[in-house]
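**User:** You know discrete backbone vocabularies at least as well as I do. Would you mind producing a protein record, from residues through to fold? Write it directly below this note and I will take it from there.

**Assistant:**
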Amino acid sequence: MDRFAQTPEPPYFAVIFSNQHSDQLAEYEQVARRMLELATTMDGFLGVESTRDASGFGITVSYWRDEEAIAAWKSHAEHAVARLRGRTEWYKNFHLRVAKVERAYSLANAETGARKLL
């Protein structure tokens, strides 16, 4: 399975969630799987990439069509409950950043993408 999100041509948005797990992770994996399942049903969701190291530091980047789609995801009731649990139980610290993706290229089109930047 390809672990890279299959995003469209830019522009689109990336929500970058960097976090450090706490020691209290009861139900975390179950809720994280449910949030991914739920996000994939949201209008404007484009994909996700996520990784976590042995110390519990993780980064998840979700991709969205526009800021309205991000706002709808943020206001989803089930996601709001999960975010509250994250702040109070699962994370020692986190940072969330929202960025507009204006250019994107991969190994398959790196030469073309590099020429566009020159």
In short: Residues 1 and 49 are 12 Å apart (CA to CA).
